[in-house]
Amino acid sequence: MYNPKSMKAEEFIDHNEILESLAYAKSHKDDVYLIDKILQKARLRKGLNHREALVLLECEIKEKNEEIYALAEQIKKDFYGNRIVMFAPLYLSNYCVNGCVYCPYHSKNKHIARKKLTQEELKAEVIALQDMGHKRLAIEAGEDPVNNPIEYILECINTIYSIQHKNGAIRRVNVNIAATTVENYRKLQQAGIGTYILFQETYHKKSYEKLHPTGPKSDYAYHTEAMDRAMEGGIDDVGIGVLFGLELYRYEFAGLLMHAEHLEAVHGVGPHTISVPRICPADDIDPANFDNSISDDIFAKLVACIRIAVPYTGMIVSTRESKKTRERVLHLGVSQISGGSRTSVGGYVTPEPEDENSAQFDVSDNRSLDEVVQWLMSMEYIPSFCTACYREGRTGDRFMSLCKSGQIQNCCLPNALMTLKEYLQDYATPETRKLGEKLIDKELENIPNQNVRKIVVERLEKIAQGDRDFRF
Ligand code: SF4
Ligand code: SF4
Hints:
- The chain has helices at about 10, 15-25, 30-40, 50-60, 60-80, 120-130, 150-160, 180-190, 205-210, 220-225, 225-230, 250-265, 295-310, 325-330, 370-380, 390, 395-405, 410-425, 430-445, 450-465, and strands spanning about 85-95, 135-140, 170-175, 195, 240, 275, 315, 335-340, 380-385.
- About 50% of the residues lie in helices and about 10% in strands.
- By secondary structure, the chain is an alpha/beta fold.
- Strands 1, 2, 3, 4, 5, 6, 7, 8 and 9 form a 9-stranded parallel sheet that branches.
- The site of one iron/sulfur cluster has 10 residues, from α16 and α18.
């Protein structure tokens, strides 16, 4: 029985509810009256439930789809302005005991080079990331209780936060590790992590079990209920996602939104972020073996419909996607992207030789961070290195209520401009700096509160003189 408040995976991600919702959406895909009603509700910017959002996803009426895209763009502008938050993944270890069939780190892959960073190697990776200009990382590790126990992860977090190199600092560490216990989540929370990220991969239980034949991750319920344990352990901000291409995208879309509804119903706060990776090539992984892969058009529609359904939830696209695709979905709802990423262990210090491939996935967007920053600014986006909220204690429901009232906007733009200024001073190429200074001057005019604007101007001056880390 479908029950968003249930703590059982199979009840809050109820298979029959998904099937019924899919059938409902299919039978109403040409129902202009209903689609208009849903769009009217969506314009209130309070989101949609999974069933309503599915109707929009299914809709094939050209004019209505244009309205859907236009609304997604508008919601994106209203909530996130033209800011794009930057981050980088950092792979700590690719040892893994699981058998995920879509990932080259699966335990049966005997030819891939296995590597785990020592603390010295980690320091070198972090310095390389700081020298690029990154302030926000997502650390990644396979599941392996012997090689990557929680103590190792905690030690790494500690090391990362402790490194100060020139003006560099990693100010927010998000963590993407396997589902674990409440006790371990509490340890992560105490270590000062930002968001805990865990992708569901697929919400379809039977497919999930086929795709995860061995290892602890094969337990669907334990994996699906992980975010509840994380929140019980005190982690306020959680990031969910699926790997599009494993199952039917409509099913996954419904599952994602039901998961969000469950978190909201039980914990009073939905997911902080939603990631939308698509399956892509890697060592012994060929996307052609997965027959649910989705086109660029469907991908764009998914992003637009997620933006409309959960306006307050950040949306992340990684370098799995090409420059062209990223450009398209930035307009439709994506609020956070990675740049200059390396997806192998130790890859920032020692890029892999061409004949080796120990990356978790092949990167489609190979540009440097500076190139990505310049590209964003050339489209009038503001690359933001802001990490202020969690450092100011604005997490969980506190963050969401500021978000819902729109007050967070008073922080985001000033913080984006000040962190961009730091980037321009410390890391940018002359051309990027020139473009950035112009953009900052222009965007200062968009800070509505005169007092705040005055403070920002003063702080920008101080940053030019060498001060760092101002935030609202
Ligand atoms: S997806 Fe994660 S758990 Fe699965 S094999 Fe890859 S690293 Fe291991
Ligand atoms: S102020 Fe908060 S919500 Fe806004 S960009 Fe910074 S961390 Fe994100």
